Fold this protein.
Amino acid sequence: MPKLLQQQKSGYQIQAEAEDKGLVVEVPTDLPLVSIDASIISRVLDNLVGNAFKYIPPGGTITLTACKADQALRVSVQDNGEGIPAEQHQRIFEKYTQVKDETGQPLRMGTGLGLAFCQMAVQAHDGTIWVESQVGQGSTFIFTLPLPARKVPSQPQATGRRSTPRNNTPDRHLI
Ligand SMILES: Nc1ncnc2c1ncn2[C@@H]1O[C@H](COP(=O)(O)OP(=O)(O)OP(=O)(O)O)[C@@H](O)[C@H]1O
Ligand SMILES: [Mg+2]
């Protein structure tokens, strides 16, 4: 996971410099591993960081952090942009939903699909995603990814059939 977060930093470096925006990655060295499809989770990060870039002014900052919280890894993408009204906090995760200005126009270009994808992708990993935001103070998008269940000593099985752990999905790896 630390690598995925650092990749966001390098991927957005040119845009950050061109737009005078900062991208900070704060990740502890002892982060636990999670079993994920890295290409999907990196698209989640990309959507969240891309949104943050759209909504911060020049001079603004985006901060990516990750930490262990209970039995999950908690990843957050924080910006100090314009923020999101409370009544929109759940709706923006629905397909084609964008916050509109008083004339009914979306505040920025987009299709309103990015967060719907993020929600589907995180839920497919048995995690949750939400936003904490106040208008004028910025937004923090947070998602969780459950830590792998602790290994229990294997018991001989009467049927000879082996059970497959839930997140032992082909494209997932511990990272
Ligand atoms: N960091 C943010 N700050 C303020 N508003 C945000 C932020 N991220 C998302 N939003 C609001 O949530 C809406 C939905 O975001 P979403 O990523 O789904 O769509 P989009 O960015 O408009 O289009 P797309 O991602 O499909 O190109 C946005 O249109 C915007 O109104
Ligand atoms: Mg988007």
User: Anything to note?
Assistant: The first strand starts at residue 22 and ends at 26. The chain has one domain: 2-6+18-146. Residues 38-55 form the longest helix (18 residues).
